[in-house]
């Protein structure tokens, strides 16, 4: 059996490797150029793939030296503003300067004083509370005025709402349904050391009336700066040490329940 020439083998290897990648980078473009792909093929690959480009002046200079055309560099600059690898959600800056995504924490609700309400014929409110396990969040922030990044993606909201059986459509649904941080509320959690949990009042009910959602008097203010059409910087006012969370307060898609919060700890 004849062996493939080394140059041909390497070309085939790198070609397969590039097209197997889920994300196209600056290095991928240089590889494709060196393997002889023309501009049309490279442009098509960029437009049909997930991308994560570096559009800094230094990085663009390297592309120019490598012989990458102006049309390709222009598309790289455009795509770098919307790197499709970036996931929707809430992010904060860690001590080492990296962005960390806050994963939703599931809570349970209970009427903490329903029995007392019955004893006085419903004259007092029964409080509904969201409770989280443990007294401290896994997301620890040392800055008392942290900056958060909210990233939304509403491109497939219609598809998500019409395909109720598709679980993938509901992935991280808060940021596919909402379009602004204004649809979230920031609250401080009450720590219950003996019960090893954190909780917040999410509603009240009495013999005659009931209400759900966070009372406005418990909502903490924060400023919102739009970075891009789907990306926002959220900065709360100075927060004292304690446990906090963002809770989605917008419209919940059909077939879903809002049973999660995005919690963090200020030290």
Please provide a brief summary of the model.
The chain has 267 residues and is α+β, with helices and mostly antiparallel strands. The chain folds into 2 domains: 6-80, no CATH class; 89-266, no CATH class.
Task: Describe the structure in your own words.
Strands 5, 6, 7, 8, 10, 11, 12, 15 and 16 form a 9-stranded mixed sheet that branches. The protein has a 5-stranded antiparallel sheet with strand order 4-3-9-14-13, with no helix packed on it. Strands 1-2 form a two-stranded parallel sheet. The chain has helices at 6-20, 26-34, 39-47, 57-65, 70-80, 114-119, 157-162, 174-177, and strands spanning 23-24, 50-51, 89-93, 99-101, 105-106, 108-111, 126-133, 140-141, 148-151, 184-192, 197-205, 210-212, 222-228, 231-236, 242-248, 260-266. The protein is α+β, with helices and mostly antiparallel strands. It has 2 domains: 6-80, no CATH class; 89-266, no CATH class. Helix 3 (39-47) packs parallel to helix 5. It is built from 8 helices and 16 strands. 19% of the residues are buried.
